């Protein structure tokens, strides 16, 4: 099976039927794997694995992002932000502290014509757009209590923070409940899903609703967050 066939079949299982999105995702894969030869962006280097481990893993998040302003905190090589931008009409901000990654992602944005997407070089705790986004998301960047402090301050009251985590993250979720409450959030639900075309591999979405404003003293400087997580 080709990458095109695999991706098309996987997206159809999720109810997504957009040939242009398939083409853009595969073009992103080509750009990613080419740049990965000279820069450490992903440990996944086979095109078929890029489809399953990156694109189809992230695709279920697109339905939560439709029509929203979204920030991908610690976006790395562009996951889940780039697939979300391609698969939905969300306005996506890709945020990362490494300038080389952001330069690459800006090239991707320009090459694919993702006009509603921007790549920003900044640390999340220093990014001055407090409570401006409908949705913040992050994919396995750090433990959930740390991610919550970096992400929830950026979310509007009534909006959501959705963390992509492994299915074995129950202890981590329990550990983060106090932080989520302090930061103005409420753990709404945890959704485990089977990644299409992946031989049964599962992933998890941890969905947190922002129910009140985050206290002004958060987020703290990253050194403090790391040394003494909430």
From TrEMBL:
One MF term in the entry's GO annotations: rRNA (guanine-N7-)-methyltransferase activity
Broad class of where this protein is predominantly found: cytoplasm
One GO cellular component, as annotated: cytosol
Keyword entries, A-Z: Cytoplasm, Methyltransferase, rRNA processing, S-adenosyl-L-methionine, Transferase
Gene behind the chain: rsmG
Protein name (database record): Ribosomal RNA small subunit methyltransferase G
Pfam families: GidB
Subcellular location per the Swiss-Prot or TrEMBL entry: Cytoplasm
Keyword field contains Cytoplasm: yes
Its job: Specifically methylates the N7 position of a guanine in 16S rRNA.
Family under the similarity heading: Belongs to the methyltransferase superfamily. RNA methyltransferase RsmG family.
EC number: 2.1.1.-
PANTHER family xrefs: S-ADENOSYL-L-METHIONINE-DEPENDENT METHYLTRANSFERASES SUPERFAMILY PROTEIN
Residues given in the record as S-adenosyl-L-methionine binding sites: 74, 79, 124-125, 139
């Amino acid at each position: 099976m080709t990458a095109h066939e695999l991706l098309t079949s996987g997206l159809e299982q999720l109810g997504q039927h957009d040939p242009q999105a398939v083409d853009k995702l595969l073009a992103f894969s080509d750009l990613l794997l080419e740049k990965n030869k000279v820069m450490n962006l992903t440990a996944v280097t086979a095109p078929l694995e890029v489809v399953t481990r990156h694109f189809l893993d992230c695709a279920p998040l697109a339905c939560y992002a439709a029509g929203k302003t979204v920030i991908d905190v610690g976006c790395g090589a562009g996951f889940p932000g780039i697939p979300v931008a391609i698969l939905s009409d969300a306005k996506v901000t890709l945020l990362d502290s490494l300038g080389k990654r952001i330069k690459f992602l800006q090239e991707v944005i320009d090459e694919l014509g993702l006009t509603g997407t921007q790549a920003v070089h900044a640390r999340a705790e220093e990014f001055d757009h407090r409570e401006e986004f409908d949705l913040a998301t992050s994919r396995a960047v750090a433990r959930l209590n740390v991610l919550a402090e970096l992400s929830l301050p950026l979310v509007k009251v009534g909006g959501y923070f959705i963390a992509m985590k492994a299915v074995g993250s129950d202890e981590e979720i329990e550990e983060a409940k106090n932080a989520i409450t302090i930061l103005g959030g409420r753990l709404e639900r945890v959704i485990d899903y089977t990644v299409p075309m992946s031989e049964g591999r599962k992933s998890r979405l941890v969905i947190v609703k922002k129910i009140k404003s985050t206290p002004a003293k958060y987020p703290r400087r990253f050194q403090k967050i790391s040394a003494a997580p909430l």
